[in-house]
Specification:
By secondary structure, the chain is mainly alpha-helical. The chain has helices spanning 13-28, 63-81, 89-94, 108-123, 133-146, 153-169, 175-192, 197-211, 216-232, 238-257, 265-281, 291-304, 311-326, 332-348, 351-367, 390-407, 412-429, 432-444, 451-467, 471-486, 491-504, 509-512, 515-519, 527-543, 548-560, 566-579. Among the domains are: 46-80 and 108-236, no CATH class; 461-579, no CATH class. The protein has 26 helices and no strands. Helix 11 (265-281) packs across helix 12, helix 14 runs antiparallel to helix 15 and helix 18 (432-444) runs antiparallel to helix 19 (451-467).
Length: 580
C-alpha cells in the first residue's frame, strides 16, 4: 500500500537534498526498475512489493487513488447529465472532463458494466443451479483484480455485496475462493468508507478468519485487504481488529529473529509493511501493548542478522524505517538506535545490502536526532541546516568517516555512489576546514583504491566553496597542502594529483572543462602531463592574486623537489621566465 509522505517535508532545502541523494542510491541498485524513476516515490513506493517485481499484484493501487478516481467519475457523470448553460462556462473549464474517445480507446466503463452484469447472472442461484466452485473462484478473482480499474461507487457496492453473500454461502475451508472474498470485501468496504455496524462486523470477522487460515496464500491476501481498511481508517471494527492483528504480527516477526521463519518472501513483505503502517498510523491505539517499540526492535535485529532476510525483505524493512524517520513516528531511543545498525550494515554488508543501509543513514542524518522535531528537514527554502552542537558534530563526523572508509573495500559501482553523494553530505554537515581536510587526505591516501572518484569529490567540494565566495580559503588550502602533493610517490601519481588539484581550484572555465580528461590520465606521465602541469601552475600563480609571500611559497615548494625531478625543474623555470 502506498503511504503518502507529507510533501511539505520535501519543499525545504534539506528535504530536496535528501531526495536527490536517496534517488542516486536507489537508481544504482541492480534491482532498480528504471533510470527514470521520479524522486518522491523513493519514499512512497509499495513496501510490500519487491522492487524488481514486474507482476501486477494485490495492493497495487492505494485507497486514496481509487477514491479520487471514483469521485472524479461521479463529478463527470453529474456534468454529463446537466444541460449546457452560459453561466456555467467558467465552472466547466475547471471541472473534470472525460477524455476524448478515439477508435483505439477502450471504453472501460461499458466493459465493466457488461462484465459485472454477466458475473451477477452466473452467480444468481435463483436463475440457474448453483454455479460450479471453479467458476465462482474465477469470477471472484477476476472481480477483485478488476477493482483496480473500477470507476464508479456502484462497482464497489456490487463487489462488497457479492463478497459478503458468497462468504456466507461458502465454508471457510474452501480457502481458494475465501481468500479473494476477504480481499474483495475489505477493499470495497475501505473504498466505500463503510460505517454501518453490521457490515463492519462482517468484514472484521472475515479478516480475522483469514489471519488464522491454514493456507499461507489466504493470510497474505488477508493482510493486503487489511491494509486497505487500515489506510481508509474505516470499513471494519478497529477495536476488535487492531489488537488481534498486532498479536498476529508480533508472533510472526519474533519467529524471524529466532531463525524459525518459514514464511514466503511475499508473506514477509506484506507482514512488515502492515507492521510499519500500524506503527506510523495507529501507534496511539496500540500504546498499551508497546507494539511500536517491539516492531522497531525486531526490525533492527533482523537487519543486523546478516543474510537471514531475503534481499527484497531487507530493502523493504530499510525503506519502512526511513518512512518512520520522515514521519517522526519513532521514539527518541529508537531513533538513536537506527544509525548504529545502519552504520554497522553499511560497513560490513555486501554491496546490495550496504546501499540500503546507507540510504537509511542519510535519512536519519537529514531528519535530525530528535524524535519530535526535524533537525533540518523542516527548514524552509533559503534557510540553513540547524547548527549542531559539538557532540552532535562529532557524531556526524564519525558517520561520514565510516562512509569514507567503506570506499576502501567497496565495489566500483558502490564507490561511485558514495563519491556522488559525498560533496553534498560534507557541505551540509561539516565545517569547511574539516571538509577540505577530509577530502584532501583521502585523495592523497595510498590506501584509496579509487583516486579518480576522490578527484571528482575534490572538484565538487572546491566548486561549492568557490561558489560561496570562499576563493581565498581554497587558495590557502592549496598552498598549505602543496608540499604533500609534490612528495607523493610514484612521480606519475604526484604529477597527476597536482594536475587534478590545480584544475579543481581554477577559476578559468576552459581549464575546469579539462577535468574529465585529466582524471583519465591517472598513472600516465609523458610530455603532455608535464606541459599541462606547468600551464596550470602558471595560471594559478598569475591569475589568483597571490601575495608576494604566497608566490614565494609556491615557487619554493617546487624548487625543493626540482633537484631530483625534471618535471618540477620545468615548472620552476616556466615561473621564473614569466616573472622576467
Amino acid at each position: 500500500m502506498v503511504v503518502m509522505v507529507v510533501k511539505s517535508l520535501f519543499l525545504c532545502r534539506a528535504g530536496k537534498k535528501l531526495l536527490t541523494l536517496r534517488s542516486a542510491i536507489e537508481l544504482s541498485l541492480p534491482e532498480a526498475p528504471s533510470k527514470f524513476v521520479p524522486l518522491l516515490p523513493v519514499f512512497q513506493s509499495n513496501t510490500e512489493r519487491s522492487m524488481n517485481s514486474n507482476q501486477y499484484q494485490s495492493g497495487q493501487v492505494n485507497v486514496t487513488s481509487l477514491q479520487v478516481k471514483v469521485v472524479t467519475a461521479d463529478v463527470r457523470s453529474l456534468e454529463e447529465q446537466s444541460d449546457y448553460d452560459e453561466s456555467n462556462v467558467e465552472t466547466a473549464m475547471y471541472s473534470f472532463q472525460p477524455p476524448s474517445q478515439s477508435a483505439e480507446t477502450v471504453d472501460v466503463k461499458s466493459c465493466l458494466r457488461l462484465l459485472l452484469e454477466l458475473f451477477a447472472q452466473w452467480l444468481d442461484v435463483s436463475v440457474s443451479s448453483r454455479p460450479p466452485v471453479m467458476l465462482v473462484f474465477e469470477i471472484v478473482k477476476s472481480a477483485v483484480t478488476l477493482s483496480d480499474v473500477f470507476e464508479e461507487l456502484w462497482h464497489f457496492e456490487w463487489l462488497l455485496e457479492h463478497c459478503l453473500r458468497l462468504a456466507a454461502a461458502h465454508v471457510p475451508e474452501n480457502e481458494q475462493i475465501y481468500q479473494y472474498l476477504i480481499l474483495g470485501a475489505c477493499k470495497a468496504s475501505a473504498i466505500l468508507r463503510i460505517v454501518k455496524e453490521s457490515t463492519c462486523e462482517c468484514v472484521t470477522k472475515l479478516a480475522l478468519s483469514g489471519l488464522t487460515a491454514s493456507h499461507e496464500s489466504t493470510q497474505v491476501l488477508t493482510l493486503h485487504g487489511i491494509l486497505y481498511v487500515l489506510e481508509a481508517h474505516s470499513g471494519a471494527d478497529m477495536g476488535v481488529l487492531l489488537p488481534t492483528l498486532a498479536d498476529y504480527i508480533t508472533s510472526l516477526l519474533l519467529e524471524t529473529t529466532c531463525g524459525e521463519c518459514q514464511l514466503s518472501e511475499e508473506h514477509q513483505l506484506v507482514l512488515w509493511s502492515t507492521a510499519f503502517f500500524l506503527v506510523e498510523q495507529y501507534s496511539d491505539n496500540l500504546k498499551l501493548s508497546d507494539f511500536s517499540s517491539r516492531v522497531v526492535k525486531v526490525a533492527l535485529v533482523s537487519l543486523s542478522m546478516g543474510d537471514v532476510l531475503p534481499l527484497s525483505v531487507y530493502s523493504s524493512v530499510s525503506r519502512c524505517l526511513e518512512r518512520l524517520l520522515l514521519s517522526f513516528s519513532l521514539s527518541k531511543s529508537d531513533r538513536e538506535a537506527v544509525p548504529k545498525v545502519a552504520l554497522e550494515r553499511h560497513d560490513t554488508a555486501s554491496f546490495r545490502r550496504s546501499l540500503p543501509a546507507l540510504g537509511l543513514l542519510l535519512t536519519q542524518l537529514y531528519t535530525g536526532r530528535s524524535g519530535y522535531q526535524a533537525g533540518g528537514i523542516s527548514q524552509m527554502e533559503g534557510e540553513t541546516l540547524n547548527d549542531p552542537g559539538m557532540e552532535e558534530q562529532l557524531a556526524v563526523l564519525e558517520k561520514i568517516t565510516k562512509v569514507l572508509d567503506r570506499m576502501h573495500k567497496a565495489l566500483p559501482i558502490e564507490a561511485a555512489v558514495i563519491a556522488k553523494i559525498l560533496p553534498t553530505l560534507l557541505e551540509d554537515f561539516l565545517p569547511k576546514t574539516q571538509i577540505v581536510s577530509k577530502v584532501v587526505h583521502e585523495f592523497l591516501s595510498s590506501q584509496q583504491p579509487y583516486p579518480g572518484l576522490m578527484a571528482g569529490v575534490m572538484y565538487k567540494v572546491f566548486e561549492n566553496l568557490m561558489r560561496k565566495k570562499e576563493v581565498g580559503f581554497v587558495t590557502n588550502w592549496v598552498l598549505l597542502s602543496l608540499r604533500s602533493f609534490v612528495q607523493r610517490t610514484p612521480l606519475a601519481m604526484a604529477v597527476w594529483s597536482l594536475n587534478c588539484l590545480f584544475v579543481c581550484c581554477s577559476l578559468n572555465g576552459s581549464i575546469r572543462a579539462q577535468f574529465p580528461c585529466v582524471v583519465e590520465r591517472v598513472g600516465h606521465l609523458d610530455d603532455l602531463d608535464c606541459e599541462f602541469l606547468a600551464f596550470v601552475v602558471k595560471e594559478f600563480y598569475y591569475n589568483r592574486g597571490l601575495s608576494s609571500d604566497d608566490s614565494a611559497l609556491l615557487v619554493s615548494v617546487f624548487r625543493s623537489v626540482s633537484v631530483d625531478h625534471e618535471v618540477y625543474r620545468h615548472v620552476v623555470s616556466c615561473l621564473e621566465e614569466s616573472a622576467m
